[in-house]
Amino acid sequence: MDLDLRKLRYFVAVADQLHFGRAADELHIAQPVLSRQIRALEQDLGASLFTRDRHGVALTDAGRQLLADAGPLLASAHAVRRRVSVAARGNRRLVVGFRAGIPVIPAAQAFEARHPDVVVDVQRIEWDDQAPMLLDGRIDVGYVRLPIDETGLHVTPLYTEPRVAVLPAGHPLAGKEEVTEADLAGEPLVWHADPSTQPTRRPHPNAGYLVRGVDETLEHVAAGRGISFLARSASVFYSHPDVIYVPVPDLAPDQVCLAVAASRTSPVVDDFFTAAQATAEITAECGNYEMWQLGGPVSKHG
Q1: How confident is the model at residue 296, as a pLDDT?
Q2: Which residue spans traverse the membrane (predicted)?
Q3: Which terminus of the chain has fewer CB atoms gathered within 10 Å of its CB, N or C?
Q4: What string of DSSP letters covers 116-176?
Q5: 161, 287 contact by CB (below 8 A)
Q6: How many C-beta atoms surround the C-beta of residue 164 within 10 A?
């Protein structure tokens, strides 16, 4: 029996809330209707998805498995609707997402030479929307930085690049040509995700400011609330008068990858992958060239 996507959306709402009443309110349907739909889904699957008792609602093992699989499935269905809508308008368009500092133009130009009839749009993405935007079709291809949840994605490594420390201009180490991890041990860290994703082998205390993008990171560091780390290419394209970038040679490098939804099959996407891989060396060197243009090492003021 085919899986009913509407019932699946209802299930996800209940699984998120672990409360039928709140889930019904979120879905704008009556609670008895929601309960019937969940029972029907359980019958379709031949498995109980929730336990219900006086202590509340909890997922069964089958429910936890379905919840893990539901996100990519619903995102894929949304992506199909989006692509069909674009095709119906007669557009030939490829949307390429990219993280801060990653040049897209070398691959786009190589791709457009083979596909002059396809418009390449570019869209900036952040660490927390890399996977969702690929899965739901808002972008067709993404230049991503690890870590990323690879569920439902094909992720292909392109190159690595060094990282730099982001320091307030008045920091005691701001004038150094380079620093080590040990030099920065114990410094509060302005970071965008959980501590397990920190690139250093020496965990830093969280500064208490979770950020999404480079601009926010620079503002917090400039205010003296902590230090941070960036890929060297990101430090090329972003500056701040109260921030200094200093190389950290022994810090784990940043891994840049190309990613696409596993359900996305398209000769056009395949050709962009080929162009991206062929121009990866040029892309990786763009940051180095820009740094040389600025007059030397990556530590700079403003």
Answers
A1: 33
A2: none
A3: N
A4: TTSEEEEEE--TTTHHHHHHTTS-SEEEEES----TTEEEEEEEEE-EEEEEETT-TTTT-
A5: yes
A6: 28
| 247 neighbors 178 (Cβ within 8 angstroms) | yes
Q: Which helix (H) or strand (E) holds 88?
A: helix 61-88
3-state secondary structure of 12: helix
d(CA 187, CA 244): 15
d(CA 173, CA 183): 8
The whole-angstrom separation of Cα 37 and Cα 156 is 40
What is the model's pLDDT at position 292? 31
pTM over 0.85: no
Does residue 58 contact residue 51 with C-beta atoms inside 8 Å?
yes
| Both tokens assigned to 185 | 């041990």
Q: Which residue is associated with the tokens 């897209």?
A: 104
pLDDT score for 300: 33
Token pair for 212 = 């999404």
The helix (H) or strand (E) run that includes residue 260 is strand 254-261
Q: d(Cα 254, Cα 232) in Å, to the nearest integer?
A: 9
Phi-psi region for residue 238, left (φ > 0), alpha (ψ -120 to 50) or beta?
beta
pLDDT along the chain (302 residues), means of 10: 83 92 91 91 92 89 90 77 63 88 92 92 92 91 94 93 95 95 93 79 80 92 95 90 96 94 87 93 64 33 34
